[in-house]
Amino acid sequence: MEHLSGGDILIRALKDVGVKHVWGYPGGAALHIYDAIYRQEDVVHLLVRHEQAAVHAADGFSRATGEVGTALVTSGPGATNAITGIATAYMDSIPLVIISGQVPSSKIGQDAFQETDMVGVSRPIVKHSFLVTRAEDIAATIAKAYYIAATGRPGPVVVDIPKDVTEPNYKVPYDFPHEVKMRSYQPSEKGHRGQIKRAVKALLQAKRPVIYTGGGIVIDNAAEHLIAVARKLNFPVTNTLMGLGGYPGTDRQFIGMLGMHGTFEANTAMHHADVIFAVGARFDDRVTNELEKFCPMATIIHVDIDPTSVSKNVEADIPIVGTCTSVLKEVLSLIEQSDISPDTDAISDWWKQIDEWRAKHGLYTASRYEESSGETIKPQDVIKMLYKITDGKAIITSDVGQHQMFAAQYYLFDHPRQWINSGGLGTMGFGLPSAMGAKLAFPDTDVACVTGEGSIQMCIQELSACTQHNLPVKIINLNNSALGMVRQWQDMQYNSRYSQSVYEESLPDFVALAEAYGHVGMKITKFNELEDKMRECFAMKDRTVFMDICIDRSEHVYPMHMPGGSMRDLWLSKTERT
Amino acid sequence: MKRIISILMENEFGALSRVVGLFSQRGYNIDTLTVAPTDDETLSRLTLTTQGDTQMAEQIVKQLHKLIDTIKVVDLTEGAHIERELMLVKVKASENDSRTELKSCVEIFRGHIIDVTPSTYTVQLAGDTEKLDAFVEAVSHMGIMEVVRSGVSGISRGDKFVCA
Questions:
Q1: Using CA atoms, how far apart are residues A157 and A150, in angstroms rounded to an integer?
Q2: Hey, what CATH class is A3-173 in?
Q3: What residue ranges do the domains of chain A occupy?
Q4: pLDDT tens, residue by residue, A112-152
Q5: Across residues A507-521, what is the average pLDDT?
Q6: Which residues of A touch B (CB under 8 A)?
């Protein structure tokens, strides 16, 4: 058996587990590992400018591909900088492995230079973590880490490695386990058959059903099974923010996103539903509004891989623990075998009702905002233009705020993994690095980061990494010279007292900034320039382009849930409400 | 309602902190906690008591089970079970009268006096929480100097057992 140092074992194990790219940033405790990287060519390292971005980039890569993303950081500040990225992945169940250097074993607990208890600090935001104490354990730990990250409900796994464990002169046999077995971890796959039968019966007897699906459909690659079930039943489908793309956005049965900024028709249909088929969604507070008023008439069928998600916020009448794919497949086959036939008259009445709601207040049937003209560029129109110019086929990443909601509402995602955003944690700064990760995975696909002048400045340093690694992403900056969502809440709930949400006089010249990093910058102030400029932007396939688009500063995101209300209680504009 | 939750987990670095962290992170309280390796040294047994209704207990059990290091989680309060707690109490006992009274009290509660000084008795007592509470109350007027309780251990009655 080959004898290798701990550092070499780590990199060899990464290769053996199938890792091709690692995002990271070197530092003292990780230097043996970085030296091992230098001595091989199988695992490519991509240097970022801040560790948070390393984790977000690995995360974007993972969301775009479904593979486990990998980040490598040093101890202390390297590790703590990675924390926001880890928490982001944890909230959205993204499989990542984060490898952190640690001070030498003998120094642990001594308040050594750049020492942080990484396992302790990251504990509440990881699926699992390891402290590796012997070079002999590295390969097995890496195999376990990737297995845990990718299976069950996926999530980030931290592997903390003290510097002495990767010491180049201490060599041990390399033994990579090709199978991982853990007595304490055996994620369930298939849902309970009896429960699935009950669910199918409820679905077939439903008169006002809604299929409500979330990120689980995307993560489990279950979109085709969802489509098959939805088509078979002719039920309306709504997606959460994390679930967009899980069902085709342009399909007639799609009634839009639900929740705080979801469509009128989706939220209203949920409220009136008699059966809700929730698949891979977790009844988040941004979906349900006031729990006590949530869907009063509905029988709730809840499918989730994670038992703790079931009946956590909303009591499920028919709980099913299993993967979206396995349960949906079984649901479809049981529907086909069932002797109950769906109540097609009731379903057709239900569709009539939904179409009425759509026609009345739908986002896509009539304009819900004033037209763009002259120097007034509406953010919604920018997203629609982006959709048009990219033919609805781009991978869109976003940051957090109004622009994120406009992108979610107006870019109709027909495919899973096309929409990449920080849904659970709501991390500003996520957009650009995650776009880098997606672009690395799909160099021939257009990748656009829809952002705002607030969010983009939280990880803007990565423009430098885009240059270094030739990652030509397009940055669509919806610039309203303010922290738009904060300002919207201040308008609605704080009598327009703009506490710390405006900073116009201090904003940088984004065009010059992009150029300083070696990219193309564009500033758009007139609506009639938008289309040509955007076409020009996407025509430059091998350049990173920063489109600084000055949008209408007063625009709010609607619909919006009224605090304390039910799902159907919505503001539809600044003056209209349900 | 009081819940006794028995957890069997890998005897690994940081396993206990994951359990304790989970409780504070999710806003549950731990009333008592005991931990020790089992006959199989690779396994640890944790027994903890907490308060909660059925829904909360169910969520706690599911959350504990979700931790990667846990092998089995059982809410013992759901079935017939035995609970025991060990208590050591140091009581003032300098007068003859109080020494006699304490001795008889210890006998009634089937405890043992395990250390004696001219001014104190140290009593060892095992039982369920209520019994221990009752003893503390019974001797409190004599002057309790220190109470040390182990926290609850529990096991299910009959043929059922929790193992890996």
A1: 10
A2: alpha beta
A3: 3-173, 193-361, 379-557
A4: 999 999 999 999 999 999 999 999 999 999 999 999 999 99
A5: 98
A6: 119-120, 123-124, 127-129, 131, 133, 148, 182-185, 306-308, 311-312, 315
A114 is catalytic: yes
Residues, chain A: 578
Query: Tokens in use for B105?
Result: 């009290």
Instruction: State whether CATH 3.30.70.1150 applies to domain B82-155.
Output: yes
Instruction: Indicate if the pLDDT at residue B164 is higher than 90.
Output: no
Distance from CA of A371 to the nearest CA of B (A): 47
CATH number for the domain running over B2-78: 3.30.70.260
Q: What's the token pair of residue A44?
A: 């490519």
Angle, vertex CA A419, rays to CA A414 and CA A422, nearest 5: 150
What is the third-level CATH fold of A379-557?
Answer: Rossmann fold (3.40.50)
Token reading at A108: 């642990």
**At the fourth CATH level, which superfamily is domain A193-361?**
TPP-binding domain (3.40.50.1220)
Q: Which helix (H) or strand (E) holds A383?
A: helix A379-389
Of B18, B59, B70, the CB nearest to A312: B59
* Average pLDDT of the residues in A386-391: 98
Chain B interface disruption, residue of A158, A184, A291, A306, most B CBs within 10 A: A184
How far is residue A524's CA from residue A97's CA, in Å, rounded to a whole number? Answer: 40
The residues of chain B that CATH labels 3.30.70.260 are 2-78
- Which residues on B lie below 8 Å from A306 (Cβ)? 66
ipTM computed for the complex: 0.91
Beta bridge mates, B136: none
d(CA A248, CA A511): 35
What is the distance between the alpha carbons of residues A354 and A265, in angstroms, rounded to a whole number? 6
- Rounded to 10 deg, the angle between the A324-337 and A193-205 helix axes is 60
A·B CB contacts under 8 A: 41
Contacts of residue B17 in chain A, CB cutoff 8 Å? 120, 123
Contacts of A35 (CB under 8 A, 6+ apart): A7, A168
Using the Cβ of B10 and the Cβ atoms of chain A, whether some distance falls under 8 Å is answered with: yes
What's this model's pTM, rounded to 2 decimal places?
0.96
pLDDT (tens digit, 9 = 90+) per residue, A307-334?
Answer: 999 999 999 999 999 999 999 999 999 9
Question: What is the overall mean pLDDT for chain A?
Answer: 96
What's the average model confidence in pLDDT over A516-536? Answer: 97
